[in-house]
Structure formats: C-alpha cells, structure tokens
Amino acid sequence: VEKRIEKILISRAKDRPSSIKSLNSLLLKLSTLEQGFDECRRGFHNVDTSNSNTISYEELKEAARKQGFATAEEDLHLIFAHSDIDGHSELTFREFLITLMYLNLVEEKFNLPTESINQAFDIAVDAFLYFDREGTGVLNKEEVIEAAFEQKEGLPDSMKKRFEEMDADGSGIVTLGEFVYTLSEWAGVEDNEIEDEEDEEYTLDVSLHRASFNSRTSVTTRSAL
Q: InterPro entries this protein is in (predicted)?
C-alpha cells in the first residue's frame, strides 16, 4: 500500500504543481485544514460503533464492507496498520484522518463528502509535495527541516520540535501518513475534541452508507467513510 501511495504522489507531482510555494503559504492555510479535518468527526463517530472514541480494525472493516469498497482485506489491514501511528491497534481521530487520506487515494468507491474536506486533503497532499523536493513520494526528515529553515523568518521553537517529531517510527523517512498526522496537530486538530452539534452542516452516515447533507449549498458528493 505504501508503495502504491508513493507512486500516486510521484504521478500527482508530475501532473500538477503544488499549490504550496513556501512554508508561510502553508501556515496561512492551517485554518482551512482545521475546518476540513474537523468536518470528518461525524464520520469517525459513525464508524466507532462501540463508542470507545477509537476505531478498531473490525469496525473499519465492517464500515468498508457496508460501503462495498473494492479494497482487498489485506490492503485494508495495511492501511489500518500504517494509520496506527501510536501502535495501540486502535485509531484515534487524527489517525483516522490518515485512513481517510489513504482510502481517498487508492479506493475508487471512496470519496470525500464536502468541498471543505476535499480542500483540506488537497492542501495536505500539496504540502507534502512541497517538501518532497526529490519527488520520491516520501520525505527525508533532515531535508524537511532544512527546507523549513530556508524561510528567512525562521520557525518558532514549537514548530521546530514538530518537524523533528514527524518521523514517528524513527525510520529516517516521513511517509504521507506521518506527515498528515503531524499536519493535523499543526492545524490545531485534537483527538478528543467534541464537535458542536449546532455547528454541523451535514450528517455523514458512515455506517457506511451514503453521506446526507443538511446544507444550503448543493455540493456534488461521492460516497465516504
């Protein structure tokens, strides 16, 4: 699965340039990222049928089965494993975002339900490609830090630390999943944040059935987790 993701990223980098041209341009988009990522919470809670505030592999598999995904069980298990950053065999909300990213790239029947979510995930991929100077589909952590330090303004200490922590498994490279996990933190997304019911503009039925929306604006949607 990781190799497929890498090939997709390499192809995307060739097909269209990243919308992120500098670290500052990424920082300006963090609020858009936060909004889009937070809109995924209803889907997370619908997949979390045990109400444990985490998602087990069995819950993810059942959700994918109901949606009729073509992803082989072996690949789904690998996606789950690569999303499980902390190694606890359960997905937190921020780890669930990695699963959504991977499925959006490899699963034809999976689609993100709102424009805000699509925009957030596009920004995340573009940010990854901005740092992927060598076009390999993975990031060398040292090169990422060096690219960040090219900014004349430098980085706040907290941002320096977060860059240094991107390589969650200590492998020396940063995958898209690790990057999305860190990026969600930069955007202020928290695992245990409770979404205000009054602010929800749609309901995402991820038993996984079709997403249904209560919105003033008509949005062309695809099915989603």
A: CML21-like, EF-hand-dom_pair, EF_Hand_1_Ca_BS, EF_hand_dom
